[in-house]
Amino acid sequence: HYRGAVSLPSITPAYAPQPADVTWPTHEWPRGEIAQQERLVAVADEAFSRPELARTFGVVVIRGGRVLYERYADVIEHFDREPEPISGDTPLLSWSMAKSMLHFIVGTLVEQGRLDPDAPAPVPEWAGEDDPRRAIRLADLLAMRDGLDFSEVYSIDQPSHVVDMLFGVGQPDVSRYAASRPLAHQPDTVYNYSSGTTNIISGVVAGVLGAGDPYRTYLADKLFTPLGMSHATPTFDEAGVWIASSYVHAPALEFAKFGLLYLRGGEWGDHQLVPRSWCDTAQIPRSQDPDNGHYYGWQWWITDDRYGTYWASGYEGQRIYVVPALDALVLRFGRTDAEHYPDIEAWRGRVLDVLAAS
After folding, report:
1. In Å, how far are 59, 116, 167, 207, 317 from 47, measured between CA atoms?
2. Cα–Cα distances in angstroms (integers) from residue 112 to residues 80, 118, 303, 328, in the given order
3. Which helix (H) or strand (E) holds 140?
4. Measured between alpha carbons, how far is 222 from 108 in angstroms, rounded to an integer?
C-alpha cells in the first residue's frame, strides 16, 4: 500500500445548498421522483441482481435532499439467533465509513482550538525526547502519511496488524496497539492506508475529551443528535476509545444524513456544525492509492470524475458517495469481495449518469 510523491489532480471543493422548498431530514426524509425515475430504478436495481455485486443489503439514492430510491434485501446473520431480514430499520455496519465520521469530530475540535493539524500529534507513546515518531503531525495521520509500519491485510494466513488490532491482542486498547508500531518511513513521505492510524487519531480525541462516557456524549451532542441519527451506535474498546476505524451501526437513511452534512458543506438547518473549510479537506487529494488508483484526502476517498464524487468507504463495499455536481448521494451496503470493488464503482457511474440525464 505504499506510495510516495505522485502527481495529484487539482480539485476545487464543491457543495450544493439545501433547496429552499425541501425540509432538512432531521426527523424524516422527504421523498421525490425524477423524469428518468423508471430508468433510475432499473439501474439501481442492478446492485441486487448482478452476481458480481452480491450480496447487496441496501441501496439509497438521494437528489436535491429527497429520497428517490430505497431498497433492501437479504438477511443479517447472527451466531446466537435466527437471521434477521434487512429493512430500513436494520442497524447496518459502517466498517471504515466510520473513519469519515471521525474526520468530522476532529474538525469540531480544530475549530475550538483544541487540536492543531499542523502540530505534532499528542500521542503519549511517542513522548520520549529521542522518539522519531514525535515528528508525526495530526495532518500526517489524517492523510495516512504517518510513516508507521502497519499492515492492513485482512487475512489470517499472513501477518496482519489490523486483524490483531480488531480481533486479537490489540482489541482492548486499539489506539495504544497502533501507536506502538515503529516507523517504516519518515512522516509525510509515504502513503499507507491504515486502520491503526485512524484509531491513533481516535485516541488523540479521547485524550482531549476524556475516554469513555465523555467521548460518547460528545459524539452524540455534536453529530448524531443534531442530524437525527437517533439509532447510530459507535463501538468503544475497553480503554474507552471509539474504534473509529471500523464500528458504527446505523440504519441506511441515518448514514445518508451524514452524507448530506458533507454535501451541504457542514451545514445542517440553521447551524454550521463544522467549518466549510474543514469539509474541503475531505475533497482535496493528498495521495493516490497504488492498488486501486483512487485518491485519498483526509479520511475520505476521492475520484476525479466529472461529478466531483468523493466517498466514505467500508470493507466489503459499504459506500456513501457524495456527488456535489448533481446534488446527490448514493449509498450501498452489502458484502462484496475487494476484487469486485471496480464493479461497484462502475454501477455507481451508471446511476450518476441517469441522474445527470434527468
Report:
1. 8, 41, 30, 41, 11
2. 44, 15, 30, 30
3. helix 138-142
4. 8
Strand partners, 312: 320
In the numeric block, the cell 491503526 is attached to: 196
Is 2's pLDDT higher than 60? no
Q: Distance between CA 284 and CA 288 in Å, rounded?
A: 11
Q: How many Cα atoms occupy the beta-carbon half-sphere of 280 within 13 Å?
A: 8
Residue 322, classed as helix, strand or coil, is: strand
The strand pairing partners of 305, in sequence order, are none
Average pLDDT, the chain: 95
Name 219's Cβ contacts closer than 8 Å, sequence gap at least 6: 105, 234, 242
What's 236's DSSP letter?
Answer: B
pLDDT higher than 70, residue 79: yes
pLDDT tens sequence across 269-328 = 999 999 999 999 999 999 999 888 999 999 999 998 999 999 999 999 999 999 999 999
Nearest Cα to Cα of residue 268 among 278, 279, 258, 277:
258
For residue 238, count CB atoms less than 10 angstroms from its CB and return exposed for 0-12, middle for 13-18, buried for 19 or more: exposed
- Interstrand relation of 328-334 and 271-272 (parallel, antiparallel or unpaired): unpaired
Within 8 A by CB and 6+ apart from 192, the residues are 1, 2, 144, 145, 146, 147, 148, 150, 152, 184, 185
Q: Does the pTM exceed 0.85?
A: yes
pLDDT tens digits, 202-229: 999 999 999 999 999 999 999 999 999 9
Rounded CA-CA distance 278/266 in Å is 8
Largest CA distance in the chain: 64
